Amino acid sequence: MPTPDPTPASSCRAHEDHLRSLGLPQMIVPSTRLREILQRSAGASAGLAVAATGLAALDRANDMAVLLVERVGEEALGTGLIGAANPIVVLLLLALGLIAAAPLVGWLVAWLVRRASWATGTLLGLASAIALLVVAPIAFEPHDGPTLRTTAPALAGVLVGTYLGAGSLVRWAARRVRRELGSTGHMVARVLPVLMLAVLFLFFNAEIWQVMVALSWPRTFAVLAVMGSLTVLLVAITTRDDLQHELAVRAPGRALRVSERINILLVPVLTTLIQAVLFGSLVFAFFLFLGWIAIPEATETRWTLRPTEDLGGLLSRVPVSITLLRVSLVLAAFAALNLAASAASDAAHRKRFVHPMIDEVVHGLAAREAYLRARRRRG
């Protein structure tokens, strides 16, 4: 849950926490974000350090396995290998344990930093940053695992992302996903019936199956990327126009930095994209289920002129073909694009789903003014 609105007499820290809970970290003055960069990056640095060490252990186990095969030969692997491979098994278990524990370690370090003093939190952040930089490269002899060439950019990315408020935006987005799940039913009731008239026709059309069966996975992902880019572009342009109009009417005369303007645009854009992703995921699951019950293998073979190809591997028993998976993915991306178009053109949809997001931005600007007043009182 977001933090409650601080009172005018609240501390600057309370106002900063409130702005972060609204997904507006760029509203916090740069000097404060720079001063807290080590503290706020401690959890991410510690978690990545543990994960990188796990990857290094996994790489070392792989090197030892290759050397063992070269020494005893593939023919001898079936006899007496268990005793010889004990060190490899230990390294594999260690690697899996470290990778699994990385999120917990990151959360624990972040929890400790939040309850520590500024100096202690800064020291923990510094130690976590150093650990991310050097522990994985020196823990094992790296071959293809993490080295300074990979850990240094990772640390730089963590620090830059922390300064820009990426962690606050991720936490805000996670809360927003939970919130939007409750409104998915209203979106489905408004958008899905009209959309199904067009999409169902495409789904039960042999031509799209013939296109998808001949499409490789890289080309499939390229198609999804194009449709996703169109969705982001449409949402960004329409939201920017709405936001500029509403702010000119309801909150005129606000002098904002470029980063602040980007941040207030990012909040409603991300909200709409979260809605689109949730809606697309629902459509994807619907078409997988519909294809499973309504299109038998004989029909798919007759449409595609090729034998049905299952997913293979551990998923070979899942009653879904690769072509059905690709068709469902493309139609789900089309549904998400259609939802973005509805947000731009449907007045009823805009009133129910878009205008509340603009209200949140206006509320965020009011929170920013309260924060700046608190800073002036403290100064």
Distance between the termini: 31 Å
Uncertain runs are 76-81
Helix-strand category: mainly alpha
The largest pleated sheet is described as:
none
- What is the succession of H and E elements? HHHHHHHHHHHHHH
Radius of gyration: 26 Å
The amount of beta strand, in percent, is under 5%
Q: Please, how many helices?
A: 14
Level of helix content? over 70%
Q: Count structural domains.
A: 2
Average pLDDT figure: 82
The gist of it:
The protein is an all-alpha fold and 379 residues long. Helices cover 80% and strands 0% of the residues.
Features:
single chain; 379 residues; mainly alpha; 2 domains; 14 helices; 0% strand
Can you describe what's shown?
The protein is mainly α and 379 residues long. The protein has 14 helices and no strands. The protein is 80% helix and 0% strand. It is flat and about 75 Å long.
Break the fold down into its secondary structure elements and pairings.
Layout: H1 12-21, H2 30-35, H3 37-72, H4 81-84, H5 86-114, H6 118-139, H7 148-164, H8 166-203, H9 206-213, H10 217-250, H11 258-294, H12 297-304, H13 322-345, H14 347-378
Helix pairs in contact: 1-14, 3-5, 3-6, 3-7, 5-6, 6-7, 8-11, 8-13, 9-13, 10-11, 10-13, 11-13, 11-14, 13-14
